[in-house]
Amino acid sequence: GTYATTLGLRVRQAYVDFNTGSGNLFAGQKWVTFSGLNPHVINAVAAAFRSGNSGFVGSEFGYTHNFGPIMATLALGNKGHYKGSNSTAVSPASDDKAADLGAPLITARVDYKMDNHHAGLALASGTLAHSKVVSTNKDSTISGTKVFYGGTFGDLNLRFEYFMGSNLNSAGFNTLASAAVANDTEYKEKGYWLSGKYNVSDSASVMFGYGSDEVDDTTLFAQGNLVKNTHFRLGTEINMATGLNFFVFHENFTSGYLN
């Protein structure tokens, strides 16, 4: 069945985090290291769905070491939450093994935190072992680079992300470009988002955001393929009483298909 018709439990996050004194050792299913910062939004699923906010939930084993205001993380992971080939954008394959990783996905990340500011850089790299499914298929690679920033300026908090890479959706990062099954083509893309939250008072805030994800070379795609998404949102959240919040949001999600 589909997600809309199948009844069942889905584990979002289940992991162990061990404090070593100078860092943290972690293992399990969590927001992947490549995810960076999350935007200000109530509808987290839409914000993470292929519209500039790259990264999602996945299984990882890794370590974060603290160097004062700098944190360095190295993580090994599988291809992410999804078991299929994530082929909506590129590949017509339906074989669940078509986009398996040939080795653990390697992600390195550096965060810098000082006062009201948080900046970071993340790098991801992996290989998709298509030849293990069909010997004549060529393996392809996953690569990604991301910079992100969050800062507070009085009553305003801003968060930003920019990423670029190839075949990132096959890593389960919820982007547009997936690897094709039978070749080693690098389907490249880039995306970004900007999000803000302004505290109007102690009990009310306004949140806004805009994101975009698009492929680089549309000549690699067939007619009808999804090549761009944009996502705009604007809303307010009001604390009505202890434990009771009211919010209203307007969202506009636009998809572009190759004619």
Chain-averaged pLDDT: 85
Rg measurement, Å: 19 Å
Identify the overall geometry: globular
Identify the strand order in the major beta sheet: 1-2-3-4-5-6-7-8-9-10-11-12
| Tally of contiguous helical segments | 1
**Using DSSP, what is the number of strands?**
12
Order of helices and strands: EEHEEEEEEEEEE
Given helix and strand content, the structural type is: mainly beta
Q: Helix content range of the residues, please?
A: under 10%
What characterizes the major β-sheet? 12 strands, antiparallel
How far apart lie the N and C ends?
30 Å
SS strand fraction: over 45%
The poorly predicted ranges are 80-98
Tell me what the structure shows.
This protein has 259 residues and is an all-beta fold. 2% of the residues lie in helices and 52% in strands. The chain has 1 helix and 12 strands. The chain has one helix at 44-47; strands at 14-19, 23-31, 57-67, 70-77, 105-114, 117-128, 140-153, 156-166, 188-199, 204-215, 226-241, 244-257. Strands 1-2-3-4-5-6-7-8-9-10-11-12 form a 12-stranded antiparallel sheet, with no helix packed on it. The radius of gyration is 19 Å and the shape is globular. The model is unreliable at 80-98 (pLDDT under 50).
